[in-house]
Write a structure and sequence with these properties.
InterPro entries: Asp_carbamoyltransf_reg_N, Asp_carbamoylTrfase_reg, Asp_carbamoyltrfase_reg_C, Asp_carbatrfase_reg_C_sf, Asp_carbatrfase_reg_N_sf. One of its GO terms (molecular function) is aspartate carbamoyltransferase activity. Belongs to the PyrI family. By secondary structure, the chain is of the alpha+beta class. Helices cover about 20% and strands about 35% of the residues. It folds into 2 domains: about 5-95, Aspartate carbamoyltransferase regulatory subunit, N-terminal domain (Alpha-Beta Plaits), CATH 3.30.70; about 105-155, Roll (SH3 type barrels), CATH 2.30.30. The strands form 2 sheets. Strands 2-3-1-4-5 form a 5-stranded antiparallel β-sheet, covered by helices on one side. The protein is globular. Zinc ion binds next to loops. The site of zinc ion has 8 residues, from loops.
Length: about 160
């Protein structure tokens, strides 16, 4: 997509955040996980938008909200290649960096159905380790290690 087309897509947003290049199908999951509708701000979601180089994509715009560094890093686990643009006065003022976090708390449920985290009133907690071929997540409670794709797919 050219910069010009991109600018036209985001021009309706005066201040806020555009999460773009989300793999198609993950947009609603991201909306839900990060509770982006809970702030009372206007949220615009585009699903199955055409995107030249990656097939279809999803896109989320949230007014007057900037993701915390922690949220941006958690987003890296779900959609490492998405772009997060901070908009001020209709312009992209910066792109937020997405870095895989060392740990994630209270976001994903443990895939192990026997894990004590499902019955005790505790926040889920995973430590994250990036290996050559995969990103592994280890549950603090049952100490099982999962591929991050397994963990992020649990609902
Ligand atoms: Zn567990």
């Amino acid at each position: 997509m050219s910069e010009k087309v991109y600018a036209r897509n985001v021009e309706a947003l005066k201040n806020g955040t555009v999460i773009d290049h989300i793999p198609a199908g993950l947009g609603l999951r991201i909306l839900d996980l990060f509770e982006l509708t809970s702030y009372g701000e206007r949220v615009t979601v585009g699903l199955n938008l055409s995107s030249g180089h990656m097939g279809n994509k999803d896109l989320i715009k949230v007014e007057n909200l900037v993701l915390t560094e922690g949220q941006a890093n958690e987003l890296a686990l779900l959609a490492p290649k998405c772009t997060v643009s901070v908009i001020e006065n209709f312009e992209v003022v910066r792109k937020q960096k997405l870095a895989i976090p060392a740990e994630v708390t209270d976001l994903f449920a443990c895939p192990n159905s026997n894990c004590v985290s499902h019955v005790e009133p505790v926040q889920s907690h995973f430590s994250v380790r990036v290996t050559e071929h995969d990103t592994k997540m280890k549950c603090k409670y049952c100490e099982k290690v999962f591929s991050k794709d397994i963990v992020v797919a649990v609902r």
